[in-house]
Structures are given as C-alpha cells and as structure tokens.
Specification:
This protein has helices at 24-34, 42-55, 66-76, 94-102, 120-125, 146-155, 207-216, 240-270, 300-312, 338-346, 358-373, and strands at 8-13, 59-63, 84-88, 105-109, 131-134, 159-163, 171-172, 175-176, 183-187, 200-204, 277-278, 286-287, 294-296, 313-315, 318-319, 347-349. By secondary structure, the protein is an alpha/beta fold. It has a 7-stranded mixed sheet, sandwiched between helices. β7 (171-172) and β8 (175-176) form a beta hairpin. The two termini are 14 Å apart.
C-alpha cells in the first residue's frame, strides 16, 4: 500500500544502477596488481574476443566510449565534408554530434509510430546525391528492421553505421544486432545493460576497415613500426581497467538480460489497464534487452504530472529524448516531424535495473496508477 503521507524529496529508487555481482572487483584488482591499467593488457584482448563471440561478428574494437565509437566509424568509412548522413531526429544527441564531428551534414528522418525508430519510408524520401550513409539507431532496447535497411543501403550504394548503444544483448531471429551494417557501435556507460563505467565497442566483418579503426584510434600509429604515424589518428583507446569490468559483465550478461526481462514483464502486467502507449516490435523473433522501460502518456501535461508525483515519492524517472531538430544548435526552420515530436513530448522512462525487486516495481506501478487516476 502507498503511504501518501510520507514526506520524501530524495531518490530512493533510481532509474538505473549497474549490476556488479560478478568478478568486476577481482579483475580490476588484477589490473592494479599487474600495473597494466592503461590501454594495453590481457583484458582488452579478452573483452574484444568475448564481444566478437557474443555478436557473431569477426572484429570487435574497444574504444573509450560509445560517442567516439560513432565518430571513429564514420571517419574510417570516409564520411566527411560535403556528405549527408541520414539519422532519426528522435535519438540521443550523440548520434547527431558524431556526424557533425566528421564534417558531414545530418539529415533528419521521421520515426515509426509503433516502434519509435527510424522510418524506412522517410529514409527513402530524404535520399539525395550527397547521401553517403544511414545511421539507424536502436532505442530503449528495440531494433530497426536492419534487413530492410541493409537492402535499401545496398541498392543505393550507401554505408550503414548502426548505433546500437542501447542494444547490447538484443537479438532478432537469433542473431545479435550489428550483423547487417558495415559497422556497428555500442556504449558501455554506467546505465547500459553491459557497463564498463565508460566505454564503447565497434564491430565489423570488414578486415581492412577493422585495421583502419585499430590504427586510427591509436593516434594513427603503425602496428609494425613504433611511433610511425602514416595517417591522421586520435586517442580513443579503452583502458585495461574498463575492459576488465567489461569481461566480468559479459560473464553475467545472460543473467542481467533475464532479470531485465522480468522487470519489463512485471511492468507490462501491472500497467495493462492504464492508457499507456508502448513500443511495438515488428518481428515475432525479437528478443530485447529492455534497456529502459519506457511508455507514452496521454499528453505532455500528464507526463509531467506523473513524473512529478513519482519524484515526490522518491522514484526517479526521466523523459525520453528531445528531438534533435528542436535543439537550439540544430534547429532547422520549417522542419517538422509530427510522429517523433509526439513521442518526445509524451514519453518517459521508469526504473529499469536488474536488481529492482518485484515489490519495488509494484510500488512504482501503484504510484503511476494513482497519479494518472488524479490522486
């Protein structure tokens, strides 16, 4: 039962916290004891090999975070000044910033009203002679139709940079996301399903591209001649300590994914009678990591009301992403994306971490129901 008299202005149930129940501390201390704490060490190799095995993709390259993974991928594909990259407006801004960092122009695309992801029909409408690449983004653990996206890209001579920052552990037809793109990227920030605190990964089946990615992320230094730099490079390296945490997380990924599904399913059962809009995946063979449990309220005012009520009762929430085309430095006059804007105005995310107990979920759902009901 909810105690509506309880004075509470502090967060008691956060939106997310990492699941650190395995060998994280042991492996980090191993790094400390060995003194291999920077960008070389056995855990870098182990993490890359483990992630390659997880995704079924030949090459996995560790980087310092998910945002630089996108920039490095675009750069090594030759995307730059004069090029256009198609990207959903409804996305976390890192997707768009990576395009700007490459020197290319982001061209915004509408969202699908059911899965909230890039609308393939609008992708076709936005195609121009300057289009060099498509950047589909998997949001909240749901995935774009990558088979259709890959077919469209191939028929139009385009590259695909797949932003899978929020989709570690997600499978479609038994295959992990990231297999249908020229290059795919992942984030391991502290609130991701698999975390290194900070970190990212790039995967590809292209041998030449993989070599370019590895050299470029290491200041462009040759792999055969020390301090010989034969191309522009950057320092986007992951540390051995970050990779050590990643290895421990990979060992627990099956458990983490199972617990996150439990959390999602309980929310859906508890909230089934409320007028909420949920993401709908098109494929029957879809297996999500349910990164953040998110839904749409009836309107923006109702969302703010529900979020305020939960905050006052110690439950952290967050709104979904603001559309990129509405941000001050990206705003484009006369551009409108009604579906994306509607989702952005009404969507919210609730606590979704693996350790969330059934009792806590029931407590959160009771407050959601109460706030919608007018209490």
């Amino acid at each position: 039962m909810i105690d509506f008299e309880r004075p509470n202005m502090t967060v008691q149930i956060p939106v997310y916290q990492p699941y650190l129940r395995g060998n994280e501390k042991k492996y980090v201390m191993d790094c400390m004891d060995s003194t291999w704490i920077s960008s070389k060490g056995e855990y870098i190799d182990r993490f890359e090999a483990g992630f390659s095995e997880l995704t079924g993709v030949k090459h996995a390259i560790c980087v310092s975070n998910g945002s630089v993974a996108l920039h490095l991928a675009l750069h090594c594909l030759g995307v730059g000044k004069g090029d256009e990259v198609l990207v959903p407006s409804f996305t976390y801004v890192a997707s768009v910033n990576a395009i700007l960092m490459s020197g290319a122009t982001p061209v915004f695309v509408e969202s699908d009203p059911e899965n909230w992801l890039m609308d393939i029909a609008d992708v076709a409408r936005k195609l121009t002679p300057r289009t060099k690449a498509i950047m589909p983004v998997h949001l909240y653990g749901f995935t774009c139709d990558m088979e259709k996206m890959a077919q469209f890209a191939k028929s139009n001579g385009l590259k695909i940079v797949e932003d899978a920052a929020e989709a570690t552990g997600v499978r479609v037809n038994g295959h992990h996301v990231g297999r249908f793109a020229d290059v795919s990227t992942f984030s391991f920030f502290g609130n991701k399903t698999l975390t290194c605190g900070e970190g990212g990964m790039i995967i590809t089946n292209d041998d030449d591209l993989a070599e370019n990615l590895r050299i470029t992320k290491n200041q462009g230094m040759s792999t055969t001649r020390r301090y010989w730099h034969d191309r522009f490079g950057v320092n986007y390296r992951m540390t051995n300590i970050q990779a050590a945490i990643g290895v421990a997380q990979l060992e627990q990924l099956e458990t983490i994914s199972r617990e996150k599904k439990r959390v999602y399913d309980r929310y859906r059962r508890n909230l089934v009678d409320l007028p909420l809009g949920w993401q709908v995946q098109n494929s029957d063979e879809f297996q999500s990591d349910y990164w953040l449990v998110s839904f749409l309220l009836s309107d923006e005012a109702m969302r703010e009301k529900v979020m305020k009520h939960l905050e006052e009762n110690g439950i952290e929430t967050r709104p979904v992403c603001i559309c990129a085309h509405q941000l001050p430095y990206l705003e484009t006059a006369g551009v409108s994306f009604p579906v994306a804007q509607d989702i952005a105005s009404r969507g919210m995310s609730v606590p979704s971490y693996p350790d969330l107990s059934d009792e806590e979920i029931d407590h959160i759902c009771a407050h959601i129901s109460a706030s919608i009901g007018g209490i």
